[in-house]
C-alpha cells in the first residue's frame, strides 16, 4: 500500500492562501513551492505529493482518485457536481456568486441571455427563481459580455466588487457565499482514513483559530 | 448533430477485445467457482424490462436510464441493475419456491452516461441476492462471500466499509422528528457534503446537545469501538436494534475470519433509496471508485407483491479488473500451415493435438498474407506443404 497522500491544489487566486493554511497546519512545504512551475511537487518529509491543477479541474482529479484530497472552491463544487466528500470549510478565498448587469437591465428582453463561467450553476439558479433564461458559456472576463451586448446579465464570483464597478456594472442578486473546501476521494477516505483524518484535524484547528 | 464516423460507437460503449476478454473470463470464473461452493444458483434475466416496474423500482437516477418504446407504446429500460429484476423473479416465476432463495448472476448493466471517460454505459457485474432471510447471519454471509470472491479474484489490499441505514434514520428521526427535516440532512449525507451538513445543523433551532449528536454522526467511523460511540448518540429501540445487528455482524465476520477487511462507517449512505439496514461498499487500493457494494433491502420485494427481507452484493467487473492488473495472456499453442495437397493430413494432426487440449490454428497457406509474421506469434509451427514434403 502506498502511503503517499496526493493533494490537488488550485493554481491562481486560491493557491497562496491554501499554501499558507497548510504551512500553519504544520505541513512542511518547501519554500520553492510558491513559485514553482512544476506541475507535480513531492514533499517526502510529509509523505505527500502535490499536483497543481486548474481550480475548476481539482474536483475531477479527486473524483477519479488520482489525487486523494484537494482544495476546491465551493463555486467549482456546485458547477461540477463531482462525487467527492466535502469534509471541511477552509474559510479561505471568501467571495460570493452573484448576478450582475448594466443598470436597469432586469427589465430587458423576452429571451434574456446570461453569460457565465458556470453554466450548470446559472441554469439551476434561474430555474429555482422560476425564470427562463438562455445561458452563454464564457471562460473568463465575463464582465465584457453585457458591455458588448453578448448577454443582458452575468453570473460570476464577486470578492470586492471592484471589477464590476470599474466596468459600470451593478450587482443585482447574491446567489451564494463561496469559500474553499477540503475535498476527499470516497475510496481514499476509507483506504487512507488515518492520514486523512489527521490532516482534517490539523486543518480544522487552524481554521478554528483564524476565526477568533 | 453530425453523422457518426464508421468506427464510432455510442458514448460510453466499449469493445471487449481478446486480451481484455480473457482477463475478464478468468476473474469471472474464479469468483463464480467460489460463489457456487456457497450454494448459490445461477440466474439470468432479460436485458429489457418495463420502465414502470423494474425501472422505477431500481432507484437508479431517471437520467441514467436508457429508455425505448415497444410496439404498444410501453416504455422499456435497459436493465440498470440486477437487484430489482431478481426481486421481480423471486416474487413471480419463483413465487412457489420457499425462502430463503440464493441466486447469483453475472450480466451487463446499462447506465446512460452524461459525462466523460472511465464511466462505461454498459458494464459487467457479478453478484448474489439472498432473498427471504432477515437474519444478521444472512448479512454476514453475503459480506463474507463478497470478500471470499474478491480474494479469489486475486485482489489484495482491499477494504469493506460497513454502515447501517437503520441507525442513521433512527438518529436523524430522534433528533429532528419530522421526515422532511430528516430528508434534508440525509441528502447532505449521500451527497457527501459534510460542510453543508454542519452548516445546516447549526442553522436548526435545536439545543446544543442535539446539535452535537447530529454532528457526532460524521465522526462515526473506525473499528468496533465506533459502535460504543454510536450507542451514546441515540437510545431509541430502532437505534439499539441497528447497533445490536452490527455487533452480531462483527461476531459473524470474526467467525468467517474476515474482520481484517472491515471498517465500520455510519456515514455510508447510498444513493440507492431501497436499502434499509446493513449496507457495505468494497474498495481496492489502486482505484478511485468503489468496486463493489451491497446491503439489505427489506422493502423492495413488497413492490412486486411478495414482501420479503433480502440482501445481496454486486461487484463491478470492469473496476475490479482495473484494480487487479490481472496477467492472463491470450493463448494459441500451435499453428499448422498446409497446402491443399496435404490438407487431410493436416486436419488429422490438428484433431489429435486438439484432443490433447492444445489450441490449434489450422491455416491454408494460400490464405496467409505474411507467413513470417503469422509464424512468429506461435511457439510451435508445423508445415504440411508440397506433394511429398516432410512435416517440420
Automatic annotation (TrEMBL), chain A:
SUPFAM superfamilies registered for this protein in UniProt: Periplasmic binding protein-like II
Keyword Cytoplasm: yes
Enzyme Commission no: 2.4.2.17
Pathway connected to this protein: Amino-acid biosynthesis; L-histidine biosynthesis; L-histidine from 5-phospho-alpha-D-ribose 1-diphosphate: step 1/9
A Pfam family per the record: HisG
Molecular-function GO term, any one: ATP phosphoribosyltransferase activity
Broad class of where this protein is predominantly found: cytoplasm
Gene3D superfamilies: Periplasmic binding protein-like II
EC category: transferase
Subcellular location: Cytoplasm
InterPro entries: ATP_PRibTrfase_cat (IPR013820), ATP_PRibTrfase_CS (IPR018198), ATP_PRibTrfase_HisG (IPR001348), ATP_PRibTrfase_HisG_short (IPR024893)
Keyword line: Amino-acid biosynthesis, ATP-binding, Cytoplasm, Glycosyltransferase, Histidine biosynthesis, Nucleotide-binding, Transferase
ATP phosphoribosyltransferase catalytic domain segment(s): 54-204
Catalysed conversion reaction: 1-(5-phospho-beta-D-ribosyl)-ATP + diphosphate = 5-phospho-alpha-D-ribose 1-diphosphate + ATP
Domain description: Lacks the C-terminal regulatory region which is replaced by HisZ.
Subunit structure, interactors included: Heteromultimer composed of HisG and HisZ subunits.
Role of this protein: Catalyzes the condensation of ATP and 5-phosphoribose 1-diphosphate to form N'-(5'-phosphoribosyl)-ATP (PR-ATP). Has a crucial role in the pathway because the rate of histidine biosynthesis seems to be controlled primarily by regulation of HisG enzymatic activity.
Family assignment from sequence similarity: Belongs to the ATP phosphoribosyltransferase family. Short subfamily.
Name the record gives this protein: ATP phosphoribosyltransferase
Source organism of this protein record: Aliibacillus thermotolerans
Gene label: hisG
TrEMBL record, chain B:
Entry's transmembrane regions: none
Localisation per UniProt entry: Cytoplasm
Pfam families reported in the protein's UniProt record: HisZ-like, tRNA-synt_His
Gene that specifies this protein: hisZ
Protein role: Required for the first step of histidine biosynthesis. May allow the feedback regulation of ATP phosphoribosyltransferase activity by histidine.
Keywords, ordered alphabetically: Amino-acid biosynthesis, Cytoplasm, Glycosyltransferase, Histidine biosynthesis, Transferase
InterPro entries in the record: aa-tRNA-synth_II (IPR006195), aa-tRNA-synth_II/BPL/LPL (IPR045864), HisRS-like_core (IPR041715), HisRS/HisZ (IPR004516), HisZ (IPR004517), HisZ-C (IPR053846)
Transmembrane helix as UniProt keyword: no
Quaternary state and interactors: Heteromultimer composed of HisG and HisZ subunits.
Top-level lineage group: Bacteria
GO molecular function list: glycosyltransferase activity
Lineage, uppermost ranks: Bacteria, Bacillati, Bacillota, Bacilli, Bacillales
Keyword Ubl conjugation: no
Protein name, entry field: ATP phosphoribosyltransferase regulatory subunit
